[in-house]
Amino acid sequence: MRKLTTYTLALLGILVLFNSCKKEYETIESIDDAKIQAYIKKNNLTMTKDPSGFYYQLVTQGTGASLLNKDSVFYNLSISSLGGANYYTTAAYNNEGTYLGYISPSSYRTALEGANRGAKVRVILPSYLAYGKNGNATVPSNEVIISDITTEVLPTQWQIDDKRIVDFLAAKGLTATKSPLRVYYIVKTPGTGTSVDISSTITVKYTGRTLNGTVFDTSGDATISSPLVSLIKGWEVLLGMQKGAKVRIFVPSNLGYGLDAQTSIPGSSVLDFDIELVDVTN
Q1: Quick one: 166 and 142 in the same domain?
Q2: What is the pLDDT of residues 126-145, one digit of tens each?
Q3: Which residue blocks in 152-264 are alpha helix, DSSP H?
Q4: Element holding 37 (H helix, E strand)
Q5: What is the b/e burial string over 97-127, where b = at least 16 CB atoms within 10 angstroms of the residue's CB?
Q6: In the list 75, 101, 244, 273, which could disulfide-bond 69, CB 3.0-4.6 Å?
Q7: Which residues cross the membrane (predicted)?
């Protein structure tokens, strides 16, 4: 009997220890949710919790048309920690863009449902719906992240680019001519030689910049030669210009490199070129 009692007590001790350990263990889901709720309370926010665990808020409704899954949507994105550390911000004079139904992660789509163009939404993602325990190059392990998404009112990239160029010109006090291509140009020095046509090979000196002033390419004091048709579409604004001309052109992104980022050019970049037509061969 004493032996049985000893075994029973030992078993009870193990069960108590096991239950104690169970109570001390907290899942990442509950840890993250507690962090998010504390942040919401501290900042006096009103947010909706999705069944999957993320929180979202429609900050501003927007003034444009209602967004549907089939619509293209263009937006600026900022990703930060609950403590305010910034991990990503869409580059100045640029934007992200895709169909609403394709936006990833899906939490962004949920937050934007029922919003209008120009809306701003905030999404708080628990770590297990963001970068998880591995994090990434800039986001630490198990980090809760905040995403602020501000959509553009204008429905197409070319309209957004056109407004960016017009606003840039106004801010810099520049006067430019808009071509049928929707490329804006300023003739600094008219040429007097051979005119450029679609079959021309042009020899130029040039410098290319984004609207924030970053130089992404330049010929320096050297020249380069290329068939006009081998260059980006926006350079066709040179058609009809003559050898010796010096011009500045502003190329909307769809006539440059589009939404795809290049080595030193963010996606959806308007391109700003200074070009000297050194020679024209027809």
Answers
A1: no
A2: 999 999 999 998 999 999 99
A3: 157-172
A4: helix 28-42
A5: beebeebeeebbbbbbeebbbbbbbbbbbbb
A6: 101
A7: none
Query: Do residues 40 and 121 share a domain?
Result: yes
In this predicted model, what pLDDT tens digit does every residue of 10-63 receive, in sequence order?
555 555 555 554 446 789 999 999 999 999 999 999 999 999 999 999 999 999
Give the CATH number, domain containing residue 57.
3.10.50.40
Distances (CA, A) of 185 to 16, 182, 188: 80, 10, 9
CA quadruple 215, 218, 221, 227: dihedral, nearest 10: -150
Whole-angstrom distance, CA of residue 86 vs CA of residue 145: 10
pTM assigned to the model = 0.83
CA 117, 77, 111, 102 torsion: positive or negative? Answer: positive
Judge whether residue 1 has pLDDT over 50: no
Read off the tokens for 261: 């980022």
Q: Does a structural domain hold residue 171? A: yes
Range of the domain at 54: 28-151
- Joined together, the tokens standing for residue 187 give 């003739």
Last residue of a domain, one of 103, 118, 151: 151
How many Å separate Cα 141 from the centre of its chain? Answer: 23
Residue 146: is its pLDDT beyond 80?
yes
132 conformational bin, left if phi > 0, alpha if psi -120 to 50, beta if neither? left
Hey, what are 281's tokens?
A: 């061969």
